[in-house]
Amino acid sequence: MPTFDIGPEDFLLDGERMQVVSGALHYFRVHPDQWADRIRKARQMGLNTIETYVPWNFHAPEPGVFDLDGRRDLGRFLDLVAAEGLHAIVRPGPYICAEWDGGGLPAWLLADDAVGVRRHEPRFLDAIGKYYASLLPLVAERQVTHGGPVLMVQVENEYGAYGDDPLPERQRYLRALVDLVRDQGIDVPLFTCDQANDEMLARGGLPELHKTATFGSRTAERFEVLRRHQPTGPLMCMEFWNGWFDSWGLEHHVAPAEANAADLDELLAAGGSVNLYMFHGGTNFGLTSGANDKGIYRPITTSYDYDAPLAEDGSPTAKYFAMRDVIARHLPVPDDVPVAPEPAPVLDVPLTAHVPLADAVSSLVRGALRAYDHAPTMEELGLWSGFAVYRTRIRPDDAVLTVGEVRDRAVVLLDGQPVGVLDRGSHTFAVALPARAGELTLLVENQGHVNYGPRIGEPKGLIGAVRTAVRTLDEWTAGALRVEDAADLLRGALDVTVPSGAGAAAAAGAAVAGTSGDTAEDATAGAAWAGLYRGTFDSVAGADHFLRLDGWTKGLAWVNGELLGRFWSHGPTHTLYVPGPLVRSTGNELVLLELHGAASARARFVSGPALGITEQ
């Protein structure tokens, strides 16, 4: 029977020393028809292992649901890793961070305030036990000890950075997770990972579990810290940070290829094992991106390119070849190398069908709006991601709308016309109201649950009292929107007239903070109101595309019914990646939900990605 063990100094595969040279590749951020391509390119760079997180909420989007099909087919992904001759490391959480919505923890679970987040609490542990029972058997049957690719499984994730429970309670929680993992037949080594910091390493692991560290440079210093907490056994950097993630409104992060390669060379020369984070970042498709909040709420961009060696579209970069050269100094690398893809098709797409925002909101409500005597949270609505709609009546003397807090952003409309925006990121919690009575609608967007730190698990929607200048608003109807059905709403609506003229944009965005001042180079169709838009296009079947929305402000984009993710004129990202498997030769459908207004009712597909300005 094959074996993988933690020896006195090295990892041992069938008794022989193995220096693990791994790369992070998240199956949930890559179209499944492209998994094999990305895995092959990992082997071509010289990697011998693929590491992936497993996001609990991706597989369990609702209570009582567990999905392992299609994009969620982890078993197929691991089989493709094995078919390429590579090994695997699996990191199933329950918490993963990963700039993923809520760090992978299901919002439906944490909606119960009695659930103890990341601690030894019966409800939390019971839910984890059910999660592991649904997931880990497929991992168990693919362990190296069963002839499969899986070498190791992680317990929790950077736990030393979370919470203030005393050490005995922390270790009690970790040991409970170990028991739950072992109960599902996992017999390969278990490990923890924490930042290369004395306090975090001491708080985040167990004496009986192998410790690994996370860092991106200064290998000798970081390994010295790790060795103080891991006296024997192989030294491993479980997250070698060769890039970084992007947040809306900030610059695009890059890390110089030469510096990354030099740091990797130092690590491998020291005999250490490594997992590149990321080897290939991919995309936060749909509504899956998370957020950080250290005083300012900053949601993560749709692109998760990460300045990784393999770009968002699977293109090898200069960093790819620099790291390949380094790996070749220490381990054998294959003779075959990937080639850069051809430029993507360039297209101009007029959007000829339109449904105004107020009408779109009414059409997308999931069931009937329900009455409340307060503004409910999204959790009270049973909504774990996306958008909620809130409605009430205002009087001429109300004058101003104020909320305790909005999580995370709300477009405010009076009788269907925009009057302002409430925004958590800019701490904008008040909007002036016209001096007239009418129906007030708030379209509230959850821009991603916080994925790191003490604000994990916080509720979304309108938080606290909602007031005007003269009273508290306590008569509401509210409900969830079915944004997944937005493309269906517009299908067949090609005869609807798209608005034109500069006045349309002014009406749509004059009172709205944060609208774009950019002008599309080919603005021939006139300005566009907020709402749903649809256009069709022919192109090259199976070819990757890059959707560029200059002049549009903020919203969502679908191609052929697949939600690509969010766009926002705040940047840094200017393009949305469209995986080739989504594209056919004729009759492709592009749908946009625009929350404010656009310079023209046109969109473009461009030849390559535009990820924004950098610090350099």
TrEMBL record:
Pfam families, sorted: BetaGal_ABD_1, BetaGal_gal-bd, Glyco_hydro_35
Domain Beta-galactosidase 1-like first all-beta: start-end pairs: 377-479
SUPFAM superfamilies: (Trans)glycosidases, Galactose-binding domain-like
Catalytic reactions on record: Hydrolysis of terminal non-reducing beta-D-galactose residues in beta-D-galactosides
Domain Beta-galactosidase galactose-binding intervals: 532-588
Keyword Hydrolase included in the entry's annotation: yes
PANTHER family cross-referenced by the UniProt entry: BETA-GALACTOSIDASE RELATED
Family recorded in the similarity comment: Belongs to the glycosyl hydrolase 35 family.
Lineage of producing organism: Bacteria, Bacillati, Actinomycetota, Actinomycetes, Micrococcales
InterPro entries hit by this protein: B-gal_1-like, BetaGal1-like_ABD1, BetaGal_gal-bd, Galactose-bd-like_sf, GH, Gly_Hdrlase_35_cat, Glyco_hydro_35_CS, Glycoside_Hdrlase_35
Superkingdom as given in the UniProt entry: Bacteria
Name of the protein this chain belongs to: Beta-galactosidase
Keywords assigned by UniProt, alphabetized: Glycosidase, Hydrolase
Gene3D superfamilies, alphabetized: Galactose-binding domain-like, Glycosidases
GO molecular function: beta-galactosidase activity
EC code: 3.2.1.23
Domain called Glycoside hydrolase 35 catalytic: residue spans: 11-328
